[in-house]
Design brief:
Blueprint lengths: L20 E7 L3 E8 L4 E9 L8 H15 L7 E6 L3 H8 L5 E7 L1 H10 L5 E4 L2 E3 L1 E7 L6 H13 L4 E5 L8 H12 L4 E3 H4 L5 H31 L6 E4 L5 E3 H6 L10 H9 L6 E6 L4 E7 L2 E2 L1 E6 L2 E8 L1 E4 L5 E6 L2 E9 H4 L2 E2 L10 E5 L9 E6 L2 E5 L2 H7 L11 H15 L3 H26 L8 E5 L3 H12 L2 E4 L6 H8 L2 E8 L5 H17 L8 E7 L4 E8 L15 H12 L6 E4 L6 E6 L1 E5 L4 E5 L2 E5 L4 E5 L3 E6 H15 L1 E3 L2 E3 L2 E5 L4 E3 L6 H12 L7 E7 L3
Parallel strand pairs: 1-4, 4-11, 5-8, 5-9, 9-10, 13-25, 21-24, 25-26
Antiparallel strand pairs: 1-2, 2-3, 6-7, 11-12, 13-14, 14-15, 14-18, 16-17, 19-20, 22-23, 23-24, 27-29, 28-29, 30-31, 31-34, 32-33, 34-35, 36-41, 37-38, 39-40, 39-41
Helix pairs in contact: 1-7, 4-5, 9-15, 11-12, 11-13, 12-13, 13-14, 16-19, 18-19
Length: about 725
């Protein structure tokens, strides 16, 4: 907890520097957690929790505000200490799941053959959102052969409103190239006091039907999300906090409140994003599997070279032009209820203590006399779930959390009442005819058996070996799932610090992020540079410090798509510039462990004052069942805190001054370009600048790669060291 007084820190001779705090608020299904994180030390300085306010007239926004005020009071935080406040939101996801969305009016525009296309592709009808939930749409068409008739637009929009539409969409073929008509419709709708979305305002990709669907989903959320944003912003301002207000996105970044008012669809399906953001920014995972374990389910996401895997979002089985984390959800967690047949445990979950309306055995003091009985959590469930009967009534669950307590795997938040846990599992042992420890072990093995295949499949799909990544557990139930799952897969593992509030920490530390996408068959170097600049400018306009902004450009030839993703921080990380750091020997040890070589084999590249250092090693490895050995040069990039930011099994590395790097890179790309089935294949390239790692692996042609490399090198001083990591593609 902090010792700062509510009226703010007092500066004076010898006084400590004022704290700079980020507040993160995570809205969960049951509780809303708020935390404060010190920017300089990246340490938790306070936390608070309130029940999530689903039934409040202000919705979950009320809980966001309540948790914030509780945090300010409990951690004695002065408003002027806060440099940023960010929160996650479940409203977009809940609205879709429950069908609690506004009816949307679609005004399609077009002329000639494109008008026929607009009539066909922009008419959505009823859009399925999920089981029992639909989005209603109304439709009008306007022929714009003679130009846009604004009076006619106004009349058609009023017709849509009279038909029940509370939000509007403007849709025209090829509006990504000519957005003027769509923008005019949105302007007129705004004048009428109706929220509206232009399809070209959400994405620059071709495909009118998918663009219209994405815009309709976005528009359907506008009324409720604008109201929530306004209430939250007003409450934050009334608290005296002048810091920027941010919202969690579904791809793991954050965006400012103004962007959320226009594009709430970007918060859809963002539930696991906060935990993954914490895995990246707080736990500093560069290569790992992050498993966030709640009470009912576990969310699993793969992180490679500092980036989580991403996929296209889907609603009602249809893809959207929205990117979300590639998260796999498994119905087993800390509160899952076991099942038994013929006197043997045979499964655990998907029902949980929360769903069954039972208390946790681990968190009940003096459990007393109990016995194990079978029951149905819900009327449609089989009667093979196990629970504890006390005083003649089914009252308490037997859970993986209790099992991890019995086996002394739980500490901190997950630590329960040892006596009650012992009582519960001795009762389970009697029911199964075994010991309490054996019953607990079997329960955790069954949970791991549910999670391990999902992790294994995720690694296989992305061609990652289990020994190349670490499993990190977050969430209140992490100790009940992660240790046994990692053991099953032969993986290293650890439990995140402050695992129970890891998502709130992730919200606080989330990076500003945005993407620009274009449909381009064969992008020129100038087009790539323009897309890169647009992504950079978007994040800078949100408040990111230009020196922190990184832009990753990738080309998808199959989809004929170019994507530039920019990310940055509102300020330079203070701890990048000061404070104790590991010595070179410790960095060498971290690199050697990542590359699976002995420390004395490791060579270092880059200058001593660089934030990023590159390490390489030459060694021989067996191939073809050990009949032959070949030379490999693995490489690892390690930051000054000892975190491995990138690694590869085999590469060619060279360090040069910034003035020479472009020429050297051109030579290396030419040397390691090969012929493949589709023509020339350029190598993957990582550009290691003193304080930034630039990933150029998403490019497919040498001129494109060299153009972007030149743009990245331009801000450097001629003498700055740059390491080039070149990986031939097989």
């Amino acid at each position: 907890m902090s010792s700062a007084q509510p009226d703010g820190p007092q500066a004076g001779p010898g006084a400590p520097a004022p704290r700079r705090l980020k507040i993160g608020i995570d809205v969960g299904g049951t509780f809303t957690h708020a935390v404060a994180v010190d920017v300089a030390r990246v340490e938790l300085v306070g936390k608070a929790v309130v029940p999530t306010t689903h039934g409040h007239e202000d919705g979950v926004a009320a809980g966001v505000v309540q948790s914030m005020h509780a945090l300010l009071e409990e951690a004695t935080i002065a408003p002027e200490e806060v440099v940023l406040i960010a929160h996650s939101t479940t409203q977009a996801t809940n609205a879709l799941l429950e069908g609690d969305v506004a009816k949307v009016g679609i005004l399609a525009l077009g002329s000639g053959p494109q008008g026929l296309r607009a009539r066909r592709e922009a008419r959505l009808g009823q859009v399925p959102l999920g089981p029992g939930a639909t989005l209603e749409t109304a439709f009008r068409f306007l022929d714009v052969s003679g130009g846009l008739d604004e009076a006619r637009v106004r009349a058609l929009l009023q017709e849509l409103v009279a038909e029940g539409a509370r939000a509007l969409v403007a849709a025209e073929p090829f509006s990504v190239d000519r957005p003027e008509n769509e923008e005019a419709v949105v302007r007129i709708a705004t004048e009428l006091g109706i929220p509206a979305t232009a399809t070209s305002g959400l994405t620059q990709l071709y495909g009118l039907r998918m663009r219209t669907l994405t815009a309709a989903i976005n528009a359907s959320m506008l009324p409720i999300m604008i109201e929530t944003a306004d209430r939250t912003a007003r409450a934050v301002a009334e608290s005296g906090i002048q810091a920027p207000l941010m919202v969690m996105r579904s791809d793991g970044g954050i965006m400012d409140i103004e962007a959320m008012r226009k594009r709430p669809v970007l918060t859809m399906l963002s539930g696991p994003a906060a935990g993954v953001a914490a895995a990246l920014m707080y736990e500093r995972i560069a290569n790992g599997v992050f498993v966030e374990v709640g009470g009912t389910s576990s969310d699993i996401c793969l992180i490679r070279n500092g980036r989580p895997e991403i996929r296209a979002a889907e609603v009602g089985g249809r893809r959207l032009f929205v990117r979300t984390l590639d998260v796999r959800t498994v119905g087993v967690a800390g509160g899952s209820v076991p099942r038994a047949r013929r006197g043997k445990l045979m499964d655990v979950g998907p029902r949980s203590a929360h769903i069954a309306g039972l208390e946790y055995e681990a968190f009940t003091p003096e459990l007393g006399e109990v016995e194990v009985a079978t029951f149905r959590p819900r009327a449609s469930d089989p009667e093979d779930y196990l629970a504890l009967r006390r005083g003649g009534a089914i009252s308490h669950a037997i859970t993986p959390t209790g099992a991890s307590n019995l086996l002394e795997l739980s500490e901190g938040y997950g630590k329960g009442d040892a006596g009650s846990v012992r009582t519960a599992f001795e009762a389970l042992g009697r029911f199964l005819g075994t010991s309490a420890e054996a019953a607990a072990t079997r329960l955790l093995e069954l949970g791991a058996a549910r999670v391990a295949p999902v992790v294994k499949r995720l690694l296989s799909e992305h061609k990652v070996a289990a020994d190349e990544v670490v499993m990190v557990g977050g969430g209140g139930g992490a100790e009940a799932v992660v240790p046994f799952t990692a053991k099953t897969l032969g993986m290293e593992h650890r439990i995140a610090r402050h695992a129970e509030v890891i998502s709130a920490i992730g919200v606080a530390l989330g990076i500003l992020q945005d993407s620009v996408e274009r449909t381009l068959l064969n992008p020129s170097e100038s087009e790539l540079l323009a897309i890169r600049r647009e992504a950079f400018d978007r994040v800078r306009s949100m408040g990111a410090d230009p020196e922190t902004i990184e832009v990753h450009v990738e080309i998808d030839r199959r989809e004929r798509r170019v994507r530039a993703t920019a990310s940055g921080s509102p300020q330079l990380r203070a701890r990048d510039l000061a404070g104790p750091r590991p010595g070179l020997d410790e960095l060498r040890q971290a690199a050697a462990h990542a590359m699976k070589v002995a420390p004395d084999q490791v060579e270092v590249h880059g200058s001593e004052d660089s934030w990023l250092r590159t390490f390489t090693a030459e060694h021989r490895v067996p191939v073809l069942l050990g009949l032959f050995k070949v030379w490999r040069m693995p490489a690892a990039v390690v930051d000054a805190e000892g975190v491995v930011r990138y690694r590869t099994r085999d590469a060619f590395c060279v360090t040069a001054s910034a003035s020479e790097a472009e020429g050297r890179l051109s030579e290396l790309v030419a040397r390691y370009t090969s012929w493949g089935d589709g023509g020339l294949v350029i190598p993957e390239v990582q550009l290691v600048k003193p304080h930034q790692l630039v990933d150029l692996a998403g490019l497919v042609e040498a001129p494109q790669l060299l153009a972007l490399a030149s743009a990245e090198l331009a801000p450097l001083a001629p003498e700055d060291p740059v390491t080039l990591i070149v990986v031939p593609r097989s």
